[in-house]
Amino acid sequence: MVTEREFDSLQMKDVAVVEVPVDEDVAARRLSKAITFPTISNQDRSDFDEKAFNDFHQYLVDTYPLVHKTLKREILGDPRRFSLFYTWSGKNPSLPPIVLMGHQDVVPVVPGTEQQWEHDAFSGDVADGYIWGRGSLDDKIMILAILEAVEMHLKQGFQPKRTIHLVFGQDEEVMGPEGVKQIVKELKSRGINEVALVLDEGLPLTGGLFPGITAPIALIGTAEKGYTTLQLKVAGPGGHSAMPPKNSNIGILAQAITKIEANPFPYRITQPVRDQMRFLGPELPEKFHEVLEDIAFGSEPEMEETTEQKRALEYTENPTVGWQARNTSEDQFLKYMLTGPQTTAMLHTTTAVTMVNGGVKENVMPPIATAVVNFRILQGETVQSVLEQVRKIVNDNRVEVTELSDSIDPSPVSDPCGKEYRAIEKSIRQTWGTPDLVVSPYLVIGGADAKYFAASIARNVYRFTAVRVESAADAARWHGVNERVLVREFAKSIGFFHQLITNVEEL
Ligand SMILES: [Zn+2]
Predict the structure, then answer these.
(1) What's the Cα-to-Cα distance from 148 to each of 52, 142, 478, 485, rounded to whole Å?
(2) Is-catalytic flag, 304?
(3) Do residues 252 and 399 touch, judged by C-beta distance below 8 A?
(4) Dist. CA 327 → ligand 1 center (Å)
(5) CA distance 369 to 235
(6) Is 105 in the active site?
(7) Cross-strand partners of 169
(8) Could you give the CA distance from residue 39 to residue 51 in angstroms, rounded to a whole number?
């Protein structure tokens, strides 16, 4: 018997907007000041401005007196301790706690772009209705919005049912090895093995994200890709360039790089992508429904070795890529998704050659040549399987392939239908609720500190940057120039966390 599948809307209906009274100007001045502390994460980790972090910590103490009177604050991290860990004890401490996250560090200004900033990156200027500078979107805004919301609740005499932890890492922009990774370790050693809900940064609320949907969309990240960086190293005889060997170290390395790029990881449609299509599909025009319904209800085939050409593909650059579409809907969907780098990244483990090194003088054969390749690992593969696959592809014992980074496997996938996800959706609708607002889960192709919670002690981990930006083009301000946020939108961010703290009472 064939049962009819339902492809009806999963959007939460009839949520009334709640106006949270926020003094916009006062709040804007507080975020503005927070931006002036240059808590930069440089790639060179010896270049770390301890004073900036210490001053920022003191600033928070001075600015949020009730928070610092009521919550317990610890400064954690290893070996350097600059991460903030707050405990707001709940009425029922035996219940698994809630974790709200943000990160203190910001990326540096790219040298040469200083002149393009309309307001200096660390000025925190409030002008033309915006708060300007590094951290205004990524990610001091979340720290300040959370603290503002907690301070408001405390003023009203509120105490949560569950304990709420605030976790503000020190090094998210460089993978968080000293900050949140260590905090999670510490929590486990204290016997905290279960967290009810984690919310960390993700994408902001914005319009124009999906062709066919004109309404603003809030995407809630339910999973993150994994991460590893491999080094390829060729060490052979160096010597004088007047009598070179047949194959130079650089030549051997170049061949290895070419092989790796010629053998991208196969495309697969994983559960978080299917979940996203289940939520977005019904909101799209009718003509897309058939395909997206098949994607939403499809299941992932077993991983296969994909070194052989499985079928001719006019729409991939590389015909040796394994193709696992099993029906016309998958074919059409993949064809569409593979038109852009962002949507392509949702479908496979990406390969990015980011550094090469070898040679210091024009007439000397370098004894060592190295390359660095960064992989963002799709669910279903692991750090180990990527390493093994790359060694297999290179297939040359003159090339040593080793792990260079602090690597992490892809995260588990959190439930987009549970009450935890719904508490976030409800808070979004109470804050930005236009009736046509679309909320959907998605796969995070970058990463955030939340991955350390997802990897061990939390099942319900979600990523959403609780702010609305004016257009999808504002994405360029993340890590780019002229990072800024609308003053009135920062007030909404505070309202969101105020509501979320209220709504998680129902969990
Ligand atoms: Zn960030």
Answers:
(1) 21, 10, 23, 16
(2) no
(3) yes
(4) 38
(5) 7
(6) yes
(7) 103
(8) 9
Structure tokens at 365: 């054969």
Name the burial class of residue 15, with classes exposed (0-12), middle (13-18) and buried (19+) by CB atoms within 10 angstroms of its CB: middle
**How many Å apart are CA 200 and CA 169, to the nearest integer?**
11
Length of the chain measured in residues: 507
CA of 41 from ligand 1 middle (Å) equals 11
Considering the candidates 138, 139, 172, 173, report the single residue annotated as catalytic.
Answer: 172
Query: Which two structure tokens, joined as six digits, stand for 455?
Result: 């990897």
Rounded to whole angstroms, the Cα distance separating 123 from 33 reads 8
What pLDDT digit, counting tens, does each position of 427-443 carry?
999 999 888 899 999 99
* 358 vs 282: CA distance, rounded Å: 53
Q: Three-state secondary structure along 277-331?
A: HHHHHHHCCHHHHHHHHHHHHCCCCCCCCCCCCCCCCCCCCCCCCCCCCCCHHHH
pTM of the model: 0.92
Ligand 1 centroid to 138 CA: how many Å? 5
Single-letter amino acid code for the residue at 26: V
Per-residue pLDDT tens digits for 483-506: 999 999 999 999 999 999 999 999
Ligand 1 centroid to Cα of residue 159, in Å, is: 29
